[in-house]
Amino acid sequence: MDADDIPPLVAADCPLLDIDPAGRDRVLAAYAAAREQWLRLRKQAPEELANSEVAQAVRQIVEVRRRLARQTYLVGFLGPSQAGKSPTVNNLVGRKVSPQGEGEATTCVVTRLAIAPKDVLTLHYFSGERYRERRTKLCDWAQLPNTDNMTEAQVLDKLASHTPSQKPGSSARRVLAEDVPYLRCFLKSHQDHAAGLIAPSGKAVDASFEQRDTLLTHGTGLASSPSLLLAEAVLGFPSDVLDAKLELIDCPGIGASRSVDSLLTKEYLPTLDGALVFCRADEPFAGTVEELLADLKDSFTKHGRGGLASRVWVVVNKMDVPSREAKLGDGDKSLFATVRKFEPKHGIPLDQIVFGCEDIHKLAKKGPFDRAAALDKIKLEPEDESVVAQRLADCPPLQKAFEGLLTDGGVGYLRTLIREVIGKAVAGQILRDAEAVLRDAGVELDAAVKRAGNPLKAGELQAARLWWSVISGQTAKLSSRNAFFEERGKQLRVDLEAEFDKAAQPNTLRLMSPDELLNMQYPVDAAHLQDELARRLDQMNKDGFDDVATALAAGNLPELDVRGDSTPMALWRRFRAEDAGNTAWLADALPTLYQPALLGQLASPHVATPLDGATYRALLVGKIRSAAHRGTRLVSDRVRSRLKQLAEELRRRIGTPA
């Protein structure tokens, strides 16, 4: 490994991070420290670089540098086929730049949209290696394995008599209708056009901007074409409405009639810094959207701490499709209630939600119009606006998104987010992720340096492996149903219900009006129960630590220095002390018991079953049981994560446990 593998990094290399000089300087210092550790290790103990964990730390440092030194942020436009991604791009820019198709599919090539002095289109064709990787993947997806050593002609001959299995219950991946025809055209395109286009390191060709629709979208039928050999395309155009530091990546819609569209999009996810995920308003949690959000979370986790906050914005598009009843219906199945679930379900804050409607945008482009016309486009009456306002009264971010929808179909609201918010948010998240990754990588490299300078003796190594085995066993016990925490979780529910009845007094509740229950009693009860929940979970956490300590002590394990002069038991006691009385790790994950929307609708005099004392108690008891279950799980997970931390300290001392 050469020193150039991890070159120095200075502020001038990271122009995008000027937005936060203090954060940038912290990350650059962390990078310099990690690089210095790597240089020391390379000089003093190069054999440690073969350790899998050390090698992973080095790869992470290299990846962090690549991301920090980017000249533009890459923000993907992702979502199911026909979710309106490309039209939204064109509406944002104010002219047609992104290709739009008709029918079942549109964009067929990953297309990078960048600010440029004039209209340009550059086509990037596969390198030989990337073509072979794509061919192998397409063959495997068409249930045609073991083709790596075949020529295109041989694979085509095999395809002539090939029928993919579609038996019910088959473990094979489902082959879509156009997978085999597409593969056939892909191979034929290579035969017809590869000679002038596919080079060992790829080839870039300038093309006519006016030909982008023909070159970058699926046609009405499949045929041999140079376009099928494209790795990506770059569309450049002048614009004063987008942030020049952002590149928008228009990806093919997933879940269409051919698997290659999903393949192209998912292959590109690891390169993205952020994403706009489009979904249809009539099915915001369609399977393809759920799968895409899960893939994005996995991708971002590999580059930092994961999570979709400040990374992913959701565009709930085609708001004209759901019926009035679907938008305004009671219960948690109405559209606005469903959209709220992006936060608890995927960790996407509601200020990262946008509503979109092409028909309202077209109306706005024609000139002044009244709100009644906009409401009509989404199947609502003028009087329904007050109903929406009531439904969103406790959620200002969705109020703003709905106002943006009625103003111009959401385009102006989204444009403001892209120009003023998304770049800053993504930059901040990249810095936070980079700092965390570099800190962890530095710890790993530092452990390797110390390990090389103070290797374990034979007896110590045996003791370390005994400790490793016992700690791993305790961690496994907490990975499934655990009698210790199950018992305490049940008792927690009983205690909290008793505490509620003691404080609220059911007889008193029966005499209260719906308004008194909602505005007077509920805030008091919720605050008291929240405090009790936090206090009791803190005690449960201490008890969990003590239970593990008892199990570790019962093993009569030999003494062992793990970190300086700290033994495993001393470290475990330190972890317990750090967590005692500190429930910050619970704050973000534990659901709050005070949710006015839960009772607000029942407090209305217009509902069939108004809020009364019995209903109020039943709802609160349900919230108590849910919060107790969730809290118990969080405590169990916390103790398990601390065990993993202890195991990690031990692994760094050993090098390789086995």
Polypeptide structure, described:
The protein has 658 residues and is of the alpha/beta class. Among the domains are: 1-71 and 430-455, no CATH class; 457-654, no CATH class. The chain contains 25 helices and 9 strands. The chain has helices at residues 21-44, 52-68, 85-93, 128-141, 152-160, 179-197, 212-216, 259-268, 287-302, 324-328, 335-340, 342-346, 358-366, 371-377, 384-391, 396-408, 411-453, 458-477, 483-504, 506-509, 514-554, 568-579, 584-587, 596-600, 613-654; strands at 73-78, 111-115, 120-125, 203-207, 230-237, 246-250, 274-280, 312-317, 353-355. Strands 4-3-5-2-6-1-7-8-9 form a 9-stranded mixed sheet, with helices on both faces.
What is the fold's blueprint, element by element?
Elements: H1 21-44, H2 52-68, E1 73-78, H3 85-93, E2 111-115, E3 120-125, H4 128-141, H5 152-160, H6 179-197, E4 203-207, H7 212-216, E5 230-237, E6 246-250, H8 259-268, E7 274-280, H9 287-302, E8 312-317, H10 324-328, H11 335-340, H12 342-346, E9 353-355, H13 358-366, H14 371-377, H15 384-391, H16 396-408, H17 411-453, H18 458-477, H19 483-504, H20 506-509, H21 514-554, H22 568-579, H23 584-587, H24 596-600, H25 613-654
Parallel strand pairs: 1-6, 1-7, 2-5, 7-8, 8-9
Antiparallel strand pairs: 2-6, 3-4, 3-5
